[in-house]
Amino acid sequence: MSTSILFVSIRRFAVLSISVLLLMVMSGCHNHPVRHLVSDVGLIKAGETTRQEVISLLGDPDSTRMVSATIEEWTYYDEDKSLLQQTPLMGEAFSSKGYNTVVLLLNGDIVSAARYGSYDKNEFDWQNDYHWQKIEKKTDQ
User: Fold this and answer.
1) CB-based contact 111:58 (threshold 8 Å)
2) Is residue 93 part of a domain?
3) Distance CA 32, CA 30 (A)
4) Would 71 disulfide with which of 67, 77, 115, 130, CB 3.0-4.6 Å?
5) What is the b/e burial string over 19-35, where b = at least 16 CB atoms within 10 angstroms of the residue's CB?
6) Do residues 105 and 72 lie in contact, with contact meaning Cβ atoms separated by under 8 Å?
7) pLDDT values of the chain reduced to their tens digit, one per residue, 141 residues
8) What's the pLDDT at 42?
9) Domain CATH for 71
10) Which residues pair with 79 in a beta bridge?
């Protein structure tokens, strides 16, 4: 009789442990709108797309500024997350692969220009390759 009670206790503990583990994993999944700047910027046509269409495609811009009295610049940023960075609960400990940006110029309510850019976090590492060069100082004789 005691072995059956032990078996039931172990089974309940296993079910409870698995339930807690699943709850923790699911808590890392959150619902927020996902932007795909790479593909969404292709839907924006300079001279045709309106301010409202941009907002429906990309949402509110991450930053805005007035370039001139009639030209407004909207900028969208999107972090290019690595696979490890997308891991629930641990993803914050890892750095991103880079960033994607979209810069839109609006003349009134119409997009006049759209530019996409992608930046790798190691993009400027080439500058460190020149540490081996010695700079010789010239002395006056």
Assistant:
1) no
2) yes
3) 6
4) 67
5) eeeeeeeeeeeeeeeeb
6) yes
7) 567 777 778 888 888 888 777 766 665 555 555 667 778 888 899 999 999 999 998 989 999 999 999 999 999 988 776 666 566 666 666 666 778 889 999 999 999 999 988 877 776 666 666 666 665 666 665
8) 86
9) 3.30.1450.10
10) 99
Segments forming the whole domain that contains residue 91: 34-122
Burial 114-124 (b: 16+ CB within 10 A, else e): beeeeeeeeee
Q: Which two tokens stand for residue 60?
A: 């509110």
Residue closest to 35 by CA, chosen among 99, 115, 121, 106: 99
User: What pLDDT is recorded for position 64?
Assistant: 94
Total domains, the chain: 1
